Amino acid sequence: MPEPILLDGKTLAKERQLKNRERVARLIESSGRVPVLATILVGDDPASATYVRMKGNACRRVGMESRKIELPSETTTEELLAVIDGLNADADVHGILLQHPVPPQIDERACFDRIRLDKDVDGVTTHGFGRMAMKEPAHGSATPAGIMTLLRHYGIELEGKHAVVIGRSPILGKPMSLMLLNANATVTTCHSRTRNLADIVRTADLVVGAVGRPRFVQADWVRPGVVLVDAGYNPGPVGDIDLENAAVKSSAYTPVPGGVGPMTISTLITQTIDTAEAALLNAG
């Protein structure tokens, strides 16, 4: 069996970073304004703070501005909605990211859905999800959209293939299934109530692990030649697939780290630039 292809998201993200830096430079030159991504962090969760910092660094590397809004953990839904309304109305802000998860007293879905559609660069609104599902223009959820970019880059054939997505979260599993369906794959979405999961996974040409459990997908669950996309990141660091034993059976796989993660941030930056170009060049 041939050596599996390493779906190297880290390298592809660096290539896209160079192109995005050029796009930002041209945009600044033509409009005189800098694209801005606003990130909202509620509370003091250290992992969330790290993710927000990484996104700010990614903005700076391409010449964009990152505007960080930090709110206390006792913030109410109404207070957070007011912050989002202010950013929606601010013409200098081109993308809005509300870092997930928020404290339990906040209605996260109401706050996600308050983000203006064109500024929803993380692809979290129900409106954006619906438009994406119907193949209408919208920013896709950043992680699954990044995965699709990675698969296209490496020429992974999806049409007519059986894709099994393990996980059904609203910002990963569900949009991933719809994006694969829109690419003409036949899609099975599995979750915690799925019966005979291992048997279903064994029928897959492509498996997406998006369940949030370390090494959940076992090597004996997958058949030779499968494409493995590991969207998990757990302490270790390890993903949701036992890549140590399963990768050798695959035709292609995403490493953890260095596979899906870099593409998520790259997609977020790219979609912010898309919005900034639409706003600033049209305004000009």
Strand proportion: 5-15%
CATH homologous superfamily placement of the largest domain:
NAD(P)-binding Rossmann-like Domain
CATH topology call of the largest domain = Rossmann fold
Strand order of the biggest β-sheet: 1-9-8-7-5-6
Q: What's the CATH architecture name of the largest domain?
A: 3-Layer(aba) Sandwich
| Sheet of most strands | 6 strands, parallel
**Structural class by helix and strand composition:** alpha/beta
What Rg, in angstroms, do the CA atoms define?
Answer: 19 Å
Helical amount among residues, as a percent range?
Answer: 40-55%
CATH level-1 class of the largest domain: Alpha Beta
Describe the structure.
The chain has helices at residues 9-31, 46-62, 77-89, 108-114, 126-133, 142-153, 173-182, 197-201, 243-246, 260-283, and strands at residues 5-6, 36-42, 65-71, 95-98, 162-166, 186-190, 206-209, 227-230, 252-253. The chain has 284 residues and is of the alpha/beta class. The protein has 2 domains: 32-117, 3-Layer(aba) Sandwich (Rossmann fold); 142-256, NAD(P)-binding Rossmann-like Domain (Rossmann fold, 3-Layer(aba) Sandwich), CATH 3.40.50.720. Strands 1-9-8-7-5-6 form a 6-stranded parallel sheet. Strand 8 (227-230), helix 9 and strand 9 (252-253) form a beta-alpha-beta unit. Helix 6 packs across helix 10. It is globular, with a radius of gyration of 19 Å. The mean pLDDT is 97.
